Amino acid sequence: MVQLRKRGIASGLIVAKSTSDAESIQPSSKSVRGRPRDVSKNSAIIEAASDLFLELGFDGTSMDGVAKRAGVSKQTVYSHFSSKEQLFGDAVHAAIASYYPERALASVENHTLEADLRAVCYRLATLLMSDRAIAMFRLLVTAAAKGPELGDIFWRSGPADIQRQLAAFLQTWADKGALNIDDPEKAGQQLVALFKEPAHFKISIGIQPMLTTEEIDACVDEAVASFLKLYRA
């Protein structure tokens, strides 16, 4: 639940220490062709893989292990996912997809600049401050020296889309004349940093407990206020 190109939103990395199961670390996003996927089995496999990747890392997770945890055969796992790399990417996407800015905006009834900013920030803060995101970040720190291959998979499986959506969201308000922004991607990274730090770093190194809902609210309120001081037109 990875350093890479432009990782301003969220990042995580599980790097293999060996090539067990004959699965080398090569980015892959190819879908398995053949009969349609069984949705319930697909979900069970992704859920099992997500748990195992966080518990054991990429190297310690095998397709056999995923199959056992999901209650399916190894053949079934491979009928849904062509490789452990693809399974990793799909697991990341499944974990992140519901936190995309477009999902946050869909829940806003009255779209004002402040309301939209707060909705987007709160959704992302909830993701980044979650137990699983912190666990993934710790894996990144531990495995960072091993190479960026799986980090690339992680980045392309969700965080890159979040960053693009966030930049597009800010550009929309800039086009309306509400924000004065020359570089929406950079502004989006700054916005995330405002609500993410220093809490995220302190939690990651174990000197601060997880934030409560009220504390996340406060971080988001402060971040939005500071961002508007910088960029409100």
Folded structure, characterized:
With 233 residues, the protein is mainly alpha-helical. The chain folds into two domains: 20-95, Tetracycline Repressor, domain 2 (Orthogonal Bundle), CATH 1.10.357; 99-231, Tetracycline Repressor, domain 2. Helices cover 64% and strands 0% of the residues. The radius of gyration is 19 Å and the shape is elongated.
Share of residues in strands: under 5%
Radius of gyration: 19 Å
Overall SS class? mainly alpha
Low-confidence stretches: 1-35
CATH class type of the largest domain: Mainly Alpha
Number of strands: 0
Number of domains: 2
| Residues in helix, % | 55-70%
CATH superfamily of the largest domain: Tetracycline Repressor, domain 2
Shape: elongated
**Assembly state of the chains shown:** single chain
According to CATH, the fold-level topology of the largest domain is Tetracycline Repressor, domain 2
Return the string of H and E elements.
Answer: HHHHHHHHHHHH
Determine the number of helices (DSSP H or I, runs of at least 4 residues).
12
